[in-house]
Write a structure and sequence with these properties.
Strand order of the largest sheet: 4-1-7-5-6
Radius of gyration: 15 Å
Number of domains: 1
Order of helices and strands: EEEEHHHEHEHE
Structural class: alpha+beta
Bound molecules: the ligand Nc1ccn([C@@H]2O[C@H](COP(=O)(O)O)[C@@H](O)[C@H]2O)c(=O)n1, 2C-methyl-D-erythritol 2,4-cyclodiphosphate
CATH superfamily: 2-C-methyl-D-erythritol 2,4-cyclodiphosphate synthase
Strand content: 25-35%
Helix content: 25-40%
CATH topology: 60s Ribosomal Protein L30, Chain: A
Distance between the termini: 9 Å
Largest sheet: 5 strands, mixed
């Protein structure tokens, strides 16, 4: 039996924060604001994985009011979500995600993100796809005020 899940996240770009996407620190003059490390890509994937198994969402598992998750490494949160999905009898088949970032250019970092995500999901990097898009300079994404991520995930009953 197969199930699909979908995830979305957006975080504001601000000065004085590191830019971390897919567990990779990117050289950029701004970073994403959040209670955790604000890795929007991993948050969208976490929600897609949880969604596929009908296990709620990232904020329910890891509330942004809990000091335990302040500055949290989102890879740790993703791994915990995957552990819960596995414990419910599912394994992740593949993930496809899109990052909408007017800047910086993501292409040089995509394979490093895929490797991290694959490791956290317990699958081959060949089953993880990450795509970068600009927002054609339109709206708050186009003005570099935020970065958005969207993801889908397929799971199979183990
Ligand atoms: N932050 C980004 C955005 C895009 N790319 C790459 O450029 C291609 C064209 O993007 P458009 O938004 O102009 O359609 C896209 O397919 C990516 O390969 C990128 O590396 N980083
Ligand atoms: C990850 C968590 C928890 O630290 O906080 P944020 O980094 O603010 O991220 P968000 O995507 O808003 O929601 C999930 C949170 O509860």
């Amino acid at each position: 039996m197969f199930r699909i899940g979908q995830g979305y996240d957006v975080h504001r770009l601000v000065e004085g924060r590191p830019l971390i996407l897919g567990g990779v620190m990117l050289p950029f003059d701004k970073g994403l604001l959040g209670h955790s490390d604000a890795d929007a890509l991993l948050h969208a994937i976490t929600d897609a994985v949880l969604g596929a198994a009908a296990l709620g969402d990232i904020g329910r598992l890891f509330p942004d009011t809990d000091p335990a998750f302040e500055g949290a490494d989102s890879r740790v949160l993703l791994r915990e979500a995957v552990a819960r999905v596995n414990a419910a009898g599912w394994r992740v088949v593949n993930v496809d995600a899109t990052l909408i970032a007017q800047a910086p250019r993501l292409a040089p970092f995509i394979d490093a993100m895929r490797a991290n995500i694959a490791e956290d999901l317990g699958i081959d990097a060949g089953s993880v796809n990450v795509k970068g898009k600009t927002n054609e300079k339109l709206g708050y994404l186009g003005r570099q005020e935020a970065i958005e991520a969207q993801a889908v995930c397929l799971i199979q009953k183990a």
